[in-house]
Specification:
CATH class of the largest domain: Alpha Beta
Strand content: 5-15%
Radius of gyration: 22 Å
Oligomer: single chain
Number of domains: 3
Number of helices: 25
Distance between the termini: 37 Å
Helix content: 40-55%
CATH topology of the largest domain: Aldehyde Ferredoxin Oxidoreductase,  A, domain 1
Structural class: alpha+beta
CATH architecture of the largest domain: 4-Layer Sandwich
Length: 614
Amino acid sequence: MKGWTGNILRINLTDKTFKIDHFTEEFAQKWIGGRGFALKILWDELKPGIDPLGPDNKLLVVQGPISGVPMPNSGKTIVAAKSPLTGTYGDGNLGTHVTIQMRKAGYDILIFEGKLASPGYVYIQDDKVEFFPANEIWGKGSYDAQAWLETKYGKTAGILSIGQGGENQVLYAIIRSMEGRAGGRPGIGAVMGSKNLKAIVVKGTKEIPLADPKAMKERGVGDLKKVGAMDKSSKWSVQGTNAVLSWCNEMWALPVRNMRFSHHEEAWKLDGQRTSEARVATYGCPHCTMRCGIAIRDKEGHESEIDYENVGMLGPNLEIFDLKQMASLNYMCDDFGVDTISAGSALSFYADAIDQGATKGDFKFGDAERAKELLRMAALREGVVGNLLADGSLRMARKFGHDSEAYAIQCKGLDLSAYNCKYVPGQALAFGTSGIGAHHKEAWIITYELKHSERGAYGRDKAQKVVDLQRIRSSIFESLPICRFPWIELGWDLKNYPEYFNLATGSNWTLEDFTNTGDRIYSLLRAFWVRENPKTDRTADYPPRIYFDPANAEKEGPTAGKHLEYDKYDALLDHYYDIRGWDKRGVPTRKSMEKLGLAEEAEQLSKLAEVAPG
């Protein structure tokens, strides 16, 4: 087997033992790596209905066949588990030295089972696994934890850690690495915390197995230079991801005041130009020549690395337009190890619920200092309010009542990313049908939709575009795995990725092979959701109900009076299900699953939920 090591390091935290398992080339060719591997393993090994924060859940760290090989943006790692936020499969990808070190240690997959009796961390060096107490770093933020571990193991060691948010099992806690890398929005950091696992450290000395090492090196290094030149020519890294803020504001798609509004005249104070001008450092993932991590000084003087999602959700969505104050909230999220998107959404929902009379409190939009205090309370689960905020917007809404769930801006429990699509049906569909809950990484259709199609149209082409993007993103970018920015931002041709895969593995794949695998992955993602929610129906794929409310439409501007329409969205959802081969409830049919090589999984699903023949 080339490209993959074929090795799974299975670590039992309860009894502090480990063993090496192996997977076959057939398994590898069917699921690629990354998300594909994680999804299939969790489907096979987790019993339906287990507590995501209990010892029966498993934490996976997963690579793919080109992970860690020098080539454009190949430094990504997948972290996955059953999500405590959504109750189904959850994952995230992040750039980290773990990608390189884990592959050099000889592993494609790490599986952490059980729970440590007391807080600790695991050190993996090639064939050696050691367990250490985390006395010096438990209770500390992720920056201190990273620094302490780097001092002990070196700056190039692969390090994954959690902050206090993960320790306290905040349901949207993430896993952190390096300066500002983070992943696992659906609460994967909380799963790590539930296992008393503060950190994972990996170092390796072996060669990464490749079918043609010489050709792979020549191609990879050459393409790194080409992507770097394209970035320099386009000047994309000057503003990085936050360049999109001005566009969102101009297109009336910005999250403002818990997404009740989509434009604000003060948004320019937080835009890409302002963040670039305030830059004090630039960071990036391993094997990246288009570094997008712009760091600025926050209100307290910390170096805070930001991107658009951070800015959008912690800035205009809270009606905070002070760049340094927004950066303070971002730094706190990173240090506590909580997702900036869900944290911003939880805070904005709380302020909105107070405004609407659903609950009582002293927090108002625009109050940055109180937002900081509430964020600290959430990360530490301090008091009633801290615990409410730590559970996320959907659970808060269900406790508040008063129909507040209508304006909890989430799908399947995961809060929407920073794109206000209250009149943009294609992006609403992308959020609604995302396999892990609302996430822009699954199908970012909004630029296509607002540039290339009729504003507010509900045609079948929108559903097809969402499916096409989910196919490519789930198979190539989540399963190889590799960063999507060269493709999205610089126009790096998709055909490069099958070529990388073939050089690494000796295969002869085309883009069609990847799209077929993407369909297999998305069908199993949906089956996982249905397995955990046997009575599911199509409302699970609906965006927030307030998006359909005429009273929530803008009163002025180009989107005045526009909102989503139930009947038309339902028809769009029908198109999506038809393309996917799912029934009217959004459940994959037996025929469609069998066509994708999922006959066994279809049979397993049929024992828990109704599966139509197709």
